[in-house]
Structures are given as structure tokens and as C-alpha cells.
Amino acid sequence: MEMPSPNPAILARKARLAERLLAVLPADAVIQEEAETRAYECDALTAYRCPPLLAVLPRSTQEVSDVLRICHDEGVPVVPRGAGTSLAGGALPTADCVILGVARMNEVLETDFENRIIRVQTGRTNLSVSGAVEEEEFFYAPDPSSQLACAIAGNIAMNSGGAHCLKYGVTTNNLLGVTMVMMDGTVAEIGGAHLDAGGLDLLGVICGSEGQLGVVTEATLRILRKPEGARPVLIGYDSNEVAGACVSDIIKAGVLPVAIEFMDRPCIEACEAFAKAGYPMCEALLIIEVEGSEAEIDHQLGLITEIARSHNPVELREAGDADEAARIWLGRKSAFGAMGQINDYMCLDGTIPVSSLPFVLRRIGEMSKEFGLDVANVFHAGDGNMHPLILFDANKPGDLETCEAFGAEILKLCVEAGGCLTGEHGVGIEKRDLMLHQYSAADLEAQLKVKDVFDPKWLLNPAKVFPLSVTEGRRAVALAAE
Amino acid sequence: MMTPGSEAELAEAIAGASGPLCIQGGGTRGLAVDGEVLSTRGVSGVELYEPGALTLVVRAGTPVAEVEALLAKENQRLAVEPMDHRGLLGTDGAPTIGGVIAANVSGPRRIQAGAARDHLLGVRFVDGAGQVVKNGGRVMKNVTGYDLVKLMCGAHGTLGVLTEVALKVLPRAEAAATVTLTGLDQPGAVRAMSAALGSPYDVTGAAYDAETYQAHIRVEGFRDSAAYRSAELVKLLSPFAMAEVQEDAESLWRGIRDVAAFQGRDGDVWRISVKPTDAVELVPHLEAEALQFDWGGGLIWALVPAGTELRNRINVPGHATLVRAAQETRARLGVFQPQPGPLAAVSDGLRRQFDPRGILNPGLMG
Q: Which of A28, A315, A406, B343 could bridge across to A280 with cysteines, CB 3.0–4.6 Å?
């Protein structure tokens, strides 16, 4: 993966930069020894690593502003970092950058149940936001699989989703306001506890901008009252086509489950071997969850199972109690761990229209033979967000490259089927060079213009999201200005 | 007036424009600026509708009524129940789907389902230089590059003229039930609506009419479920006021959506967005002749004497939009609330990037 070569002029100024940062931050917040900066050399896309020039760990919006103002002055690129769980390399440093980590900013600033909001510092983890309101029976809806570890800052940067977004939406649908520091140190308040921010929807474009427009230090999030109850049903089919048709029929019937998860045979087999959840061995498994009171759940599951039966399932299992519900989810929730036991794997994230599911799965199967690598599919079927897991051996020369080439072909297939490169992980460096498959040069130019406004010197996370060849002119101007 | 018949013709019209353009869908929302009218009405029709994926792709000039009729055939509907401004503003014409999106028009269901922007999956638009741009797509989850979809929604045509929108639609609810609470003052109404919205009963409407002292709480869904939840809400809300269930209250909610209570009455109409509990503190300062709360108190409709500068009276965070007033008042006060310095600078920068000649609805948003 190509990254811009570090600017020697910046490398040479490391001592001066550290000195200036130490003037505005406590000593323990500036990390400059190589043994320690190495902790920030990668995120969850571990195939690529590069220690940053420095890392800083501010504790307040004011400190973030001071850091950015200094880096802006010095012309030093800044790579913001939440918890470092990005699968797309969103927080991958360059050797001449400052990593700005918000992990120490993890306070809950306000909970307000009457207005159904929580205001937090963005270093707080996703799950602990729900944790802060669960005593009052509330929760924060977006639930990415990494929710135990991932930070709200990264959720906002990547517009993270989760299994339950069919009903509750993704981060952008649950974000009401932010405090954001711009690259020149300006602090901006956008939105707040009211439902719609005034003026242009800046909040909408900041969410999902992968840390390229500003550093969000505080966020006002919508919280919801927990439903009275939830229950899953497990349905097995002997073909992907039939499972796909079942999903479509359920949605057409007017039932809106909170989650519809889909696993294919390789995934079922791996999960079963790992978690022993008692899954049936079949071609396609659906886990569908609905919410409400007991009677409402019974009614919705009645409709769902009636539709499911009309497609002749090989297995149909309703959870009778909490234990059985947990067993139904057990295999699905351990899917990634199960894959990790078998092999190294790369997790993709393309989205497709639900109607092209059978075609895309068939093509992935054919491509798997062409590339000689196994692939297992687990995904959010209700919204078409696929997670093909390509298995490879990191110790075998060339295997990673084959895997990446295979992955790129799958993502191109998603775009051709009417979908997109990434549904919830973000572009980062991983899908950067595929952007021209989804967007024309003019489409990308429109996006670049937005960055030109927020960060005219192109210093914030500059080597991400867009093909380097496309941003070269803009980054070069930034360098030449030094 | 220019009425191009396709996206390509619309792009040519913008590229060839020599002065300000007044971008118009149905022209029902009273947002016209000085300039030659560029209508999107000729760019109309359905591109794709997949009921099984809750996805609709439609060209911007398509009338809302056509879209709603199409969806109704499959027992589906628009998620956001957009306001029809014709009654309040005395305009005529047919509202377009592009207008709904350009103005991010969202009705009472906004508190539960989200705003128009939350259901917009993709856009095609023509920027101020005549360049066609697409962003987003037709799938529900998409984080590929910047979300210009959201940016275009609510930009009122100032960053580009929408030619096509992709929407997530929703199943039409089998039934609805409305719990009406009678005899509430404003603080009591906001407390009751907060209690309802903080309950697990999935409330899809919470509004209050300060003239009738009635609050209305709506639930939607399968028939038995709506009945169960409305009964639970009656129990929950009885301590606040006398509570009764109305089964079919479609016209009531249409009236709330369209602010029917203010129709045909003299005065200016403002729309104020605040934190719901702040509504209680704010309202006495407004000195309004009539008030209606939606979104649990988070959206205040105020009828005030013509020419009133209401923004000076707002003492809580939020913003106010001048929805109905004489041209002179609109010019003097501005339709949209001016933004604080850093945001105004960013917004201004975006307008210059997307519309370098400043010809798309100039001055409308700042």
C-alpha cells in the first residue's frame, strides 16, 4: 500500500515541534520516544505499520485546539485517532505526522433523559455510552461489533453502523451535535440538543469524513428507551437464493425487524466448530430479531415464520427463553473469532442491493476458486451490508497480495451490482484506490472541494479516502507552502 | 422560466446562465428569490422502485403525490410525512420530491423515524458551474467518501440543483392510535410528551396545541400492537391529564403537520427548533398570538404580529426560521437564522466552491 514519503523538513523539526507541544500540554501527554510511538504505528488493519513522528494525548478541547494550531503553524500533518480499531487503516500514521489520540477524553458531560440525549467526550467507548444510561433503561443505538473497544470519535469519523441499524440507523442518524476543532485551532459548535441543526447540514458531512475535516472532541447523541423485550428466530435454507427471497418477502410484508443477519455455509461451519451453538448445516442461515412486548413479539415472529415456512426452510427455531436466544446469537457473534482460529482473514464491507444477493454470492464463490482462497460470508441482510471474510496465510509469501486483489474484485463486484465499496468501515487506505470505480473524477472533485474549505492546507489525515494520485496536487501545494 | 426536460438540459441551462437563478420544484414553499426561474418539473419520473429493499429512486421534479400513490400500491410510504406548505402560505402548484429533499421537510414522525435527510440514500445534482455530480447510492449503508447526500439535503438548492434522489421508504403502518390529553398547560404538556417519548412504546408523534390545551401522542404499527401501546400510554400519562384514545386521527395529524391552526390568520409564522424542555422557558418571551408544539416540544410554531423580529427574543440554544411573512420582512430579517462566525465561514466557503458564480438561489441561506 503506497503512502506519501515523509517530508524531511518536518522530520528535521521534531525537537522543535515537541518543545512547542510541551508548552501547551502536560509532559505525559506528548509521546516522542520511538519505543512509545510504536504503540500508535497501526490500527486494526495490522498489515500496515509506521510509527508517527510524535503522538499527543490531550485531555480537553482547549488542548486539542492548541495542538492543531501549532501543527497548522508548523505545516505538520495530523492523524486523529479514537481507539485505533479501524479495519480500513483510518488511523495509520505517516512518519512525519502527529497522532492526535482522544483516548484520555472519555467523560460523560451530561445525561438528559427528558430530552433523550447524552453529551460525551469522544474518547469514550461506544458500549460505555449505553452503559452510562442503562440504569434508566435507555441505550445508544449504533452497535458496531467492536463496541467494547471502539470510541465515539472513530464512530463519528467512520459513520459506524452495527447489526441493529435496519431499525435505528447508523451514527449519523443518532448524532445531534458536536464540538469540533478545525485544523487551524478554531473551535466550532455544530448542532446541539435540538433535533435539527440550522443552516447547511455540516454535521452530516462531518460524520463519515474520516478525520479529514476536523477533530470532534465532544458529541451530543440521541439515546432511546430500551424496548420491552427482543427475541430472535433462526431459519436455515438450502440455497442462498431462497434465503434472499425470504428476506425480501418479510420486508415487503411490512415487518421491520431490528436485525436480519445472514451466514453462508463456510461461515456456519466455522462458527459451529468454534462456538458449538448447534447451528444446522445448510447453505444459508438467517437470524432475525424483533422487538416489543411479549404479545408484539409473538405477532411479528408469527408473520415472519409464516413467510419463512412458505420458502421450505430446512430448519426454523424460535427462541423459547433468554438462554435459547443467546444460543442463536452465539455463533453469529463469534463469527470473527471463529475465523481467526482457522486462519488469518481479511474482512470486507461492501454493500449491495438486497435483490442482487444471490448473484453476488454466486460470483464470490466462483472468484474464490479463481484466486484459490476460501471465503466465508456473514452480513447484515436487511440493509445489504456484506462482510465477506477472505482466509489467507500471512506467513505464506504472496498470500496477502492475492487476498487484497481478491478483496478488490469483490468490492468492484459490489459496485457493479448497484452497491458501494464500504457500508460501515470506511475507506481509509484500504479502499482508497478503488474510489474511481464508484465515483467519476467530477464526483470525487466535489468531495475534495469540501476538504478544501475545512482544511485548506490539507494537513488532516491527508493520505486517506481518496486515491493519492487524485489528491497529489493539493497535498503538494500544502508542502510547497512550507 | 426555464423548464429543462432532462438532467443534461438542466446542466446546460445552469452552465449557460448569465445571472441569478431562482431554483424551483413546485414553488409551493414560498422560498423564491429574485432571478430567472429554473424549474425542475421537467426532470420527472421513477427510475427504480424495489419494495422488497425499501428503495425508491426518483427524479427530483416528480410530484410528491405521484410518489405517495406509487408507494401506497405496495403498502409503503415516505418515512417523513413531509409538510404541505400550500395551506399555510396560500401557494398553489404541486410539491415535488426534490423540494422536500432540498428543504429537508420532515413532519411529526421526525421524532421517531428521523428527518428527510435520514432517509436520503443518494443524490444526483448539478452544481453552479453546470457540472453533474453524484453522491451516495441506493443502498442503506454507505460510507464511501464524504456524505454530500446530507449536505445537499436542506441546502435549498444553494449548492446544486437536485436532479435525482434515492430514498429509503417504509412499510405503511397497518394501524395508528392517538392518545389525547386534555387540559394541559405548556410545562405540563412538555413533561407529558417527554414521558411518552421516554417510554418503550415507540411514539411516532407528540404535539401540543396551546389554544386547545390538548397534547396528542401517536403510535403506529400492527393493529393489536397499536392498541396495546396506546392503552399502556393512557396508564402512563393519566397522572398528567385526562387521557383518551382516538383510533383514526389521520386528519388531526395532517393538521399538525401542515400547521392548519394558523391557516388564514394574519401575522408572521416562525418555526423554532430547540431542546424540548427549553420550549417551556422560551415561550413566554415570544409573546406569540398562537403556538403549536411538535416533536415533543422541540419544534415550536409561533404566530406573531407581522414584522416582529422574533430571533431577538430567543434566549435558549436553537434557531428560528421565518416561514411566512411579507417580502419586506423576509428581506429585512432573513428566512434562515444567521450562523455563528466559524460556521458561517465554512458555509460561505462551501457555497463558493459549489457555486463559484453565486447564481443558485443567491442570498437565500446567507
A: A315
